Structure to design on (454 residues):
DNA sequence: CATTATTGATAGCTTTACTATTATATTTGC
DNA sequence: GCAAATATAATAGTAAAGCTATCAATAATG
């Protein structure tokens, strides 16, 4: 499995780039450098000029790959969803028990990745942090309709569809499966941000071993879908 | 009540402005103009230069009230939470039945305001849209810790605390009340955005009369807190 | 009525976001 | 092996955004 996973490549909608960053050495440096730099200084302060310096290239060269920094963040976000889907598929394949399957699925979409490093050009831990903290900025804007029309969010929709399907297996009458799944996913991002920065808006950590955010959403999901 | 409400003023933490916009004619124009302009063109495209033109003032004058556009958005967001809290307090005062009280509370925090206009300098409907679509950009950034230290989020925390308290009245053993409330609040924003722009990530509208987002969260809340 | 505070008008500076041009290095087809 | 195509680097430059400074005009206040 580990072996197989190390051979797969995450595909990202080509609307998001001018030249495929996975197709060249420089492109890969742009991606891994973007993750590093956004993780370090945040999306607002991130510029192509700073990135160019970081990866020993030039601003103009980066512009041949991406139109602007927004598309880079969206690229990373969509890559993240492709990666999440791949983890999800392997986690639930051949699991017969419906409830166990749902539990595994929610664990995947809410987990806090510590180290993964299956992809040598992608620091998944830092990527997850970037996606958690910044991804809403990538799609909550006036361009989202155009991006959506071009199929940009297909990876994200796949993840939601898959988990949604498991919910419907358990309770075919539950009326809001997708709403529940997207609430769990986006809620996880936000709660993790709150735990770190605005603890007054969230619940305190229980014991140090457990992941309170994950517990909360698993509990919420099972109670919500029960008839 | 309506009479009383028209006499109250929403207080916003003074860390957010250099000069209190509610203290002058120009200040009020900056606020109402910001709501109009952000609603129209979105936060990214919003600039103090454009705002100055809109309200017949100058860029430099606006800079005497606010350090930057981020603080304006945060000001609007915090005002929105103060306003929400005032609505919440009146909705639940003297309501004895715990479950009814919770239902009213969740209705307030998830409602889609059509017209309100109790505050002549604030278009609440447009403000709500701006807060729904853009507010995450105001606080999800590297400055949040500093802002939080200065008590900026007190209005927001109050709202969460109040609803949280009602949940604990119904079920004192529910372990994650604040997490649930902040998930409902932020989830509402996001689901409304999804319904409009990314319907594939959410559930379809049921019948045109009902508010599916509100229904979903009320259903979710009651099921989740039940023992 | 003198002083103080507020706003407007204008200028300017730095950074960001992006494009264009040319030179150099690398790859690829033949 | 060499010409042609392609990719990248180096550099320059433009427009807008973001922000500060100065000073004059006006309004408020004591």
């Amino acid at each position: 499995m580990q072996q197989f996973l190390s051979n797969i490549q995450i595909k990202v909608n080509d609307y998001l780039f001018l030249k495929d960053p996975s197709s060249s050495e420089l492109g890969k440096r742009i991606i891994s450098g973007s993750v590093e730099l956004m993780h370090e200084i945040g999306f607002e302060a991130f510029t192509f000029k700073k990135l160019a310096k970081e990866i020993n290239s030039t601003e103009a060269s980066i512009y041949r790959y991406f139109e602007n920094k927004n598309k880079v963040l969206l690229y990373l976000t969509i890559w993240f969803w492709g990666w999440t889907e791949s983890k999800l598929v392997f986690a639930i394949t051949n699991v017969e028990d419906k409830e166990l399957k749902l539990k595994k699925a929610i664990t995947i979409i809410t987990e806090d990745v510590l180290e993964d490093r299956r992809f040598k050009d992608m620091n998944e831990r830092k990527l997850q942090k970037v996606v958690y903290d910044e991804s809403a900025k990538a799609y909550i804007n006036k361009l989202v309709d155009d991006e959506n029309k071009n199929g940009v969010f297909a990876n994200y929709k796949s993840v939601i569809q898959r988990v949604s399907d498991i919910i419907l297996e358990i309770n075919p009458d539950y009326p809001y499966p997708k709403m529940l799944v997207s609430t769990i996913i986006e809620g996880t991002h936000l709660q993790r941000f709150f735990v770190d920065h605005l603890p007054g808006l969230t619940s305190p950590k229980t014991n140090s071993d457990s992941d309170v955010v994950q517990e909360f959403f698993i509990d919420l999901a099972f109670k919500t879908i029960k008839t």
